[in-house]
Design brief:
By secondary structure, the protein is mainly alpha-helical. The protein is built from eight helices and six strands.
Length: 295
């Protein structure tokens, strides 16, 4: 576009010079179809035409100046656009960074939320375990208290057990070895628990009976003391005594339903010595264990 304007300018300049040529003037007259042209009129027309051309050239220059200003303004706008584009690209890049940061923060938040839920669940589990432990502690405390109370009651019930326990401890190793199946443990509490049970009491009576019949044990009296103590202690378990030791008198006749003959005893005759008393059931009056006697 600008090359064409430059060519136009050159054309106009050349044209203005050519219009001053006589030949050009003559040619113009021929073209306009006049046979005669007054020299003065021709000069006026040329001047007018030159004036018009100069005005056009001036207009062209003004237009070129406006175009130059427009191009400068357009160039500035282009720079502004490029600056805006660069700023927009920077903002877009920052937006991408922020979106990435937000995404990372969201993932981090989700992880923390899951951790919080895990901690909440763990806390709930610990609370439940704590409650279970508290209840277990309370149960054990009550159990210990009940056991202590039971021991206290047993001690009250079994007054004198310390003396009997000493009698047991002073037994020969042979007797204590034979009684291991009855008296288990090494404490006075275990001694009480074992001795008061009926099965153990019955087993103790059977052991003493055998030893009395064989007449080889020198500690029958001590063994009888232990049995007598626990026999009475066992009876105190019931609201009213369930058992009673047999009443056997020297001089009465041996009765096979009530008595067992001891070593060197006669088959029949009067009882001369009561070696170990048996016991009966008070409710049925039935003989549970026969007394060992010698006639």
């Amino acid at each position: 576009m600008f090359n064409k304007k430059s060519e136009d300018k050159k054309f106009i300049a050349n044209l203005l010079v050519a219009l001053e040529e006589e030949e050009v003037i003559t040619k113009i007259k021929e073209i306009i179809g006049k046979d005669e042209l007054i020299a003065g009129d021709s000069e006026i027309e040329v001047r007018e035409y030159k004036t018009a051309l100069e005005e056009k050239e001036s207009q062209i220059l003004d237009l070129r100046s406006e175009l130059k200003n427009y191009k400068a303004s357009l160039n500035n706008k282009g720079k502004e656009i490029e600056s805006l584009k660069s700023n927009l690209a920077s903002k877009a890049s920052r937006v991408d960074e922020l979106e990435f940061e937000i995404s990372s923060k969201q993932r981090e938040l989700e992880t923390k939320n899951r951790k919080i839920e895990e901690l909440k669940n763990e806390n709930s589990s610990l609370k439940a375990q704590g409650e279970e432990l508290r209840l277990e502690k309370s149960r054990l405390h009550n159990e210990v208290r009940n056991q202590q109370e039971e021991i206290r009651r047993l001690k009250d019930r079994f007054k004198g057990v310390g003396d009997i326990y000493k009698v047991y401890l002073n037994l020969s190793s042979g007797n204590k070895s034979s009684l291991q199946g009855i008296f288990k443990g090494d404490s006075i509490e275990e001694f009480i628990y074992c001795g008061v049970q009926y099965d153990n009491l019955e087993s103790l009576w059977e052991y003493i009976k055998r030893e009395v019949i064989e007449d080889k044990n020198s500690e029958i009296n001590k063994l009888d003391q232990i049995f007598t103590y626990f026999f009475a202690a066992h009876n105190r378990i019931y609201d009213s005594p369930l058992y009673k030791r047999q009443e056997v008198k020297v001089g009465e006749s041996i009765d096979e339903d009530k008595h067992i003959r001891g070593r060197d005893s006669k088959v029949i005759g009067e009882i001369k010595e009561v070696l170990f008393r048996g016991y009966i059931n008070l409710k049925t009056d039935r003989v549970i264990k026969k007394s060992v006697v010698r006639a």
